[in-house]
Design brief:
With 239 residues, the chain is an alpha+beta fold. It has 2 domains: 63 residues; 167 residues, Roll (Nuclear Transport Factor 2, Chain: A), CATH 3.10.450. 47% of the residues lie in helices and 23% in strands. The chain is built from 8 helices and 6 strands; from the N terminus they run ααββααααβββαβα. The protein has a 4-stranded antiparallel sheet. The protein has a two-stranded antiparallel sheet with strand order 1-2. α3 packs across α4. The longest helix is centred in the N-terminal third of the chain and has 54 residues. The N and C termini lie far apart (123 Å). The relative contact order is 0.11. It is a single-pass membrane protein. InterPro entries: NTF2-like_dom_sf, VirB8, VirB8/PtlE. It is found in: Membrane.
């Protein structure tokens, strides 16, 4: 008997049953995959909804109980000086930063006295001042005369400047500056007690033609047209 005769013959009916069973198995598997995906989607949607509700509740609570924070506060330092402190993240514009820089720089050049750099301060004030302020500066220090500070004092004394706060009214071009000056004599081991001042100045930016060397000092044409300084009394410093 041949080998083919020993094996059972596969009929068409057997093949039909096999194909039906295979088709049923694939259908069940596909149905299970679809059900799993549907379940996962509903779970994700539910979690997303819960998260949205939680964020909404948290935001409403913060808005309900939050209080507005002032932009600045004046604080009294241990040495008696007043300093402006920002309570918010700085959001200054370029114009505000630029104005503050030039206003502060002008006061430092005007009020500082250091024998070795007096010429640089003199040049800077001259380029940053209108006619009246330049004359005021000239008369105060008597530059170019025998009574000039660099001739009378020389390098025996220096005056340092510390800016405490700068408050700008940019629309009107007016700045109010709190600062202190501290004198130091070479013959003394310690500095003198600081003195406190309030300066009010008006400023603008001119398109005046300048030499290249002058542009290095005052590239934007910053000009101060009025400058007034008053001593800050103990009562004001404390209040």
């Amino acid at each position: 008997m041949s080998r083919a005769d020993k094996n059972e013959a596969i009929t068409k009916a057997d093949m039909a049953v096999f194909q039906q069973e295979r088709q049923d198995l694939e259908t069940d598997l596909l149905s299970e995959v679809l059900n799993s995906r549907r379940t996962a989607w509903w779970a994700a949607t539910g979690l997303g909804g819960l998260a949205a509700v939680a964020f909404a509740v948290a935001g409403l609570t913060m808005y309900r109980y939050s209080q507005p924070v002032p932009a600045h506060m004046l604080v009294l330092n241990p040495d008696g000086s007043i300093q402006q402190v920002s309570l918010l993240t700085p959001q200054s514009t370029y114009g505000e930063v630029s104005d503050t820089y030039w206003v502060s720089g002008f006061i430092r050049h005007y009020e500082t006295y250091e024998f070795n750099t007096v010429q640089a301060d003199y040049d800077a004030v001259g380029l940053m001042s209108g006619p009246d302020v330049a004359e005021q500066y000239q008369n105060r220090y008597k530059w170019g005369t025998k009574e000039a500070m660099d001739k009378v004092v020389g390098d025996r004394k220096s005056v340092r400047v510390k800016i405490s706060s700068v408050i700008l009214d940019r629309e009107k071009g007016i700045a109010t500056v709190r600062f202190s000056t501290t004198e130091k004599y070479r013959s003394r081991a310690t500095s003198e007690e600081p003195q406190y001042w309030i300066a009010t100045l008006s400023y603008t930016y001119d398109n005046t033609l300048l030499k290249a060397s002058e542009r290095y000092i005052n590239p934007l044409g910053f000009r101060v047209y009025s400058y007034n300084v008053n001593a800050e009394t103990a009562a004001k410093v404390g209040g």
